[in-house]
Each structure stands twice: as C-alpha cells, then as structure tokens.
Amino acid sequence: MTSELADSAEQLSLSRQIHARLREAIIRGEYPQGHKLAEVRVAEELSVSRVPLREAVPMLEMEGFVVTTPRRGAVVTTWTTELIHNLFDLREVLEVGAAGLAAREIGRGASAERIEEALAHSHAVVDDGDPYLIAEASTLLHESIVEATGNPLMQASMRSVSGRVQWLFFLTSDLDVHDAFNDHVELVAAISRGDERMAEALAFAHIERDREPSFAVLHQPLG
User: Fold this and answer.
1) Is the distance from CB of 164 to CB of 78 less than 8 angstroms?
2) CA angle centred on 24, ends 214 and 177, rounded to 5°
3) DSSP β-bridge partners for residue 76
4) d(CA 59, CA 43)
5) Are 34 and 78 a contacting pair, CB within 8 Å?
6) The whole model's pTM is what?
7) N or C, which terminus of the chain has less Cβ within 10 Å?
8) Distances from the Cα of 177 to the Cαs of 114, 118, 123, 169, 200, in angstroms?
9) Could you list the mean pLDDT of each consecutive 10-residue stretch along the chain, which spans 223 residues?
C-alpha cells in the first residue's frame, strides 16, 4: 500500500471512529435535538482535526442524526410526530416482512444461531439496566432478524434506519423493557420454528404497541 493510500485509509478509519462517537453522544443526549454541531467546538471536544470530522458528518446525515444547511451547518435532528410515524410505518413494512422471510429461511434449514445469540445478549443487558446498552441490544436483535432473510436489499434498508431505531429506543427507555424482551422471546421462537404467519403477526404487534407511547419523547426537554 502506498503512503497516500495508507493515509487515506487511516483518515477514513478516524472518520468512522468520530462518526461512532458522535452517534452515541447524540443518542445519549450529550448533543441535544436542535443543537448546532459547531465544527471548531466539536473538534476541540473530541480532540480531533476538522478534516475527519467533516467526513463523519455526512455519515450522520445519511442515518438521519443531523440535518445540514449551507448557513447553519450540521444541526442535530429534532423528533417530530411525522418523523416518528414515518419510522414506524417503515419498520412495519420492513420488519414484519423480514420476520416472515427469516422464518421461511430457517424453516428451510438456515441457522437461527445469530438471532438466538442476539436474544441472549439482550437478556443479559436488560438485567444490567443501562438504557443505552438495552437500546443497542434491542436494535441488534431486530437487525439480526433482517439479516436472517438473506436479502441484501432488506439488510441495506435496515442498516439505513437502525441508528434512528436505536435512538428512539433510548428515548423511550422508560417503557417496560421486560415486556419488550418477552415479545422478543415469542418472536424469536416463532422464527426459529419456521412459523411465518405467527412471526409476522408478533412482529407487527410488537412494533405497533410502542408507536403511541413513543410520542412522549416530543414532550421531553430538547436541551
């Protein structure tokens, strides 16, 4: 590898690290909704140069964490009624279908190991009680179900919204996590035994149950 390519790869790696740090900080509320990510200040706070920071911001925008405008720069996305409905509508189309397809694939002999591992991990973090880790583990479980479909387009679609899913899970962490985990247990069981219709029904009920309670985040202080 030439020195130019090595420098480029190192910078890309640093940009991804900055992206991951900012993503977590936004989810945790360290950079609140509506907050302007002033380039100089954020670079100083993260002890990084501004070049990889500029490369990290478009990644955040693609995932829906920030909105950029020519004059204001990057501003943390503010949750709205429309945004919450849009996310739930997409999840129902994507994840309900994915639950059925995953059950079909597993019924035909595909492995359910990754889904079951994700379920076990989510059980461990529920007992731990950290809202961020619970939201992260729950999102990973939903991602593992989509992964089990073997459909690259569905997988790419899930990756594009999973950050926002995790963010909303974190914001609604006061909902009963044990109820959600029990839903996950039933859903994984249906998928693992290849029951397509039951998996779809459980996935729909699980997602839809949290739609209305999620609007409580609109009444939280935005910082």
Assistant:
1) no
2) 40
3) 66
4) 16
5) yes
6) 0.88
7) N
8) 21, 15, 10, 10, 21
9) 45 83 95 93 90 91 93 91 96 98 97 96 87 94 97 96 96 83 95 98 96 83 48
